[in-house]
């Protein structure tokens, strides 16, 4: 652990120095050089003295406190450079709360540390600046960012761009749908949301930007799709295998139960993109067919590094960065083979510089996420909130579900997918089972709710990675992700009240529920994607929403739900026919 923390703190120092030396919109000034040098000095001293810093964390040593205080200050300054005043003010307010937490009454249970010891804990504690968030970004995300740039060096994105352009000619936003589905499919076998974002995001975000989607919306769709991959069988971010041990449920039953909710998630995203694309009139492309030989060559070059990543994910699920290293090496070799040595060498250097700039911004932001996690851990806020909220619910299942959802979200903040389930599966799920919920429903419920932290600010680690790739605002990306990922808030409650979605019930119950929920969530999602709509369309939107709710919720008899679903299909067919008569898609030449 000491070697890993030494590595990540040095990487933090290099990243922070690069942030200070790369100001946006102005030339580098003398104090930027001073801050960069200070960041490097603090990082080196921290790395060299890491074991000593941990041993002296509670000693009150003045030198240790000074070093920790400087590290915290540099993190806040780098955060301001990268994300702006809002995020910096929020993190600063949380820091102040943590400093005052020892004076607050129960259930806040902060230890009576001095201000100096508190500062050292925030800098070097287990969940702090040099903690889980920085480790994930430094060890996994940065490696995949480098892979993305090496993939560009090889020219691998050309095949995806051409494929997306051909597909997008068939309808509004088709390339966005392809990008989202591809990200989700890769995420279904990946063990890390962030690794999935920075892998598929290197292809999908430029693909979406190509047809005119703004950077923050492209990043949001990638974050939502990659997060969805973690709830889609067969791997589910390795949580499926943990669930076997923690819940005692056979693996076959887990992936069977998770199949329909995972499908509903991507159906909702697909149809929301459809409505969203039609509202924005995202246009298609007119392209000339690629010759078969060139298609095969491009596909071969494209698939070699991707297959290496998939192979590494399957064979080494706990080391996703290994696949990125292998794939990066393959990309460099293939680039030299295609372009020659001299030209490739110069471009390689340029791509490494670009990767460093993107990585530096993400690493700097992950440091302040570490501050948030450190304060939550120090003050006991996460566990206190979880226990307190569940105590309020008492024996009322509805209140318990709401309380468990909030608690799972809080406990899942900043954790990797595996750690998310390990925490909520052991702390929260058993209480729901005790209240009468089926074990599989309880464990999937808390897992879904915990995954909300991936796309919900202030942490939203999937949005952090995606916004860095797209060079977009973290906050705008996160807010858009909450809109595109609304089903992640809704689905846990839907499959609790509709247990047939988890394959619990008779065959007829499962079929009717699956059909009505699929149609209902598709119609509702497309309506959400079309908002804001003209006032003349509000009655139609209201009818879609009402029929969707009737179709999905088990408050009405099955016959009524089927009638509502049939009405949605007929309305949709009618609207499609009207749209074809009144709308002519604009086609651009590429």
How would you describe this structure in keywords?
590 residues, mainly alpha, two-stranded parallel sheet, 27 helices, disordered C terminus
Can you tell me about this structure?
77% of the residues lie in helices and 1% in strands. It has 590 residues and is mainly alpha-helical. Strands 1-2 form a two-stranded parallel sheet. It is globular.
Task: Supply the number of helical segments.
Answer: 27
Spatial separation of the terminal alpha carbons: 51 Å
Quaternary structure: single chain
What is the share of helical residues? over 70%
Total DSSP E strands: 2
Largest sheet: 2 strands, parallel
Choose one word for the global shape: globular
**In percent, how much strand structure appears in the residues?**
under 5%
- Average pLDDT, to the nearest integer? 82
Low-confidence stretches: 583-590
Strand order of the largest sheet: 1-2
Written as H for each helix and E for each strand, in order along the chain, the element string is HHHHHHHHHHHHHEHHHHHHHHHHHHHHE
- The Cα radius of gyration reads 25 Å
Estimated structural class: mainly alpha
């Amino acid at each position: 652990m000491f070697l890993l923390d030494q590595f990540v703190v040095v990487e933090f120092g290099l990243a922070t120095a690069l942030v200070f030396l790369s100001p946006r919109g102005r030339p580098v000034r003398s104090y930027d050089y001073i801050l960069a040098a200070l960041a490097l000095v603090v990082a080196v001293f921290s790395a060299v003295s890491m074991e000593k810093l941990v041993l002296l964390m509670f000693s009150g040593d003045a030198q240790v406190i000074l070093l920790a205080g400087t590290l915290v200050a540099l993190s806040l300054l780098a955060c301001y450079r990268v994300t702006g005043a809002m995020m910096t003010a929020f993190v600063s307010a949380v820091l102040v709360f943590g400093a005052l937490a020892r004076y607050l009454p129960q259930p806040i249970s902060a230890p009576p540390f001095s201000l100096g010891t508190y500062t050292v804990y925030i800098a070097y504690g287990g969940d702090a600046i040099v903690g889980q968030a920085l480790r994930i970004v430094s060890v996994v995300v940065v490696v995949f960012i480098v892979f993305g740039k090496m993939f560009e060096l090889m020219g691998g994105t050309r095949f995806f761009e051409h494929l997306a352009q051909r597909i997008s000619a068939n309808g509004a936003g088709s390339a966005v749908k392809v990008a989202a589905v591809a990200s989700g499919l890769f995420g279904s076998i990946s063990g890390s949301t962030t690794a999935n974002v920075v892998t598929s995001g290197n292809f999908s975000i430029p693909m979406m930007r190509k047809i005119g989607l703004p950077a923050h919306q492209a990043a949001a769709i990638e974050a939502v799709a990659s997060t969805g991959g973690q709830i889609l069988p067969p791997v589910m971010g390795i949580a499926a295998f943990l669930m076997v041990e923690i819940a005692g449920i056979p693996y076959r039953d887990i992936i069977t139960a998770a199949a329909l909710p995972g499908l509903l998630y991507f159906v909702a995203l697909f149809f929301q993109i459809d409505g969203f694309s039609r509202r924005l009139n995202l246009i298609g492309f007119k392209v000339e067919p690629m010759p078969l030989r060139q298609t095969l060559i491009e596909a071969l070059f494209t698939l070699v590094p991707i297959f290496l990543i998939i192979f590494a994910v399957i064979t080494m699920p706990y080391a996703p960065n290994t696949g990125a290293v292998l794939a990066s090496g393959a990309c460099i070799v293939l680039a030299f083979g295609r372009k020659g040595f001299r030209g490739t060498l110069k471009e390689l250097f340029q791509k490494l510089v670009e990767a460093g700039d993107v990585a530096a911004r993400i690493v700097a932001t992950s440091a302040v996420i570490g501050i948030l996690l450190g304060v939550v851990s120090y003050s006991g806020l996460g566990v206190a909130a979880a226990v307190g909220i569940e105590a309020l619910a008492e024996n009322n299942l509805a209140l318990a579900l709401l309380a468990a959802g909030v608690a799972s979200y809080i406990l899942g903040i900043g954790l990797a997918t595996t750690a998310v389930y390990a925490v909520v599966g052991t702390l929260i799920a058993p209480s729901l089972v005790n209240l009468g919920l089926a074990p599989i429903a309880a464990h999937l419920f808390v897992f879904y709710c915990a995954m909300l932290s991936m796309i919900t600010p202030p942490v939203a680690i999937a949005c952090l990675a995606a916004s860095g790739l797209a060079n977009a605002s973290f906050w705008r990306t996160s807010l858009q992700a909450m809109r595109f990922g609304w089903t992640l808030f809704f689905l846990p409650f839907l499959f609790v009240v509709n247990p047939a979605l988890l394959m619990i019930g008779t065959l007829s119950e499962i079929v009717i529920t699956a059909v009505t929920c699929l149609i209902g969530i598709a119609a509702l999602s497309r309506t959400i994607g079309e908002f804001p709509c003209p006032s003349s369309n509000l009655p139609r939107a209201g009818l879609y929403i009402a029929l969707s709710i009737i179709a999905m919720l088990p408050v009405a008899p099955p016959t009524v739900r089927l009638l509502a679903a049939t009405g949605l299909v007929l309305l949709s067919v009618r609207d499609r026919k009207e749209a074809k008569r009144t709308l002519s898609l604009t086609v651009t030449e590429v």
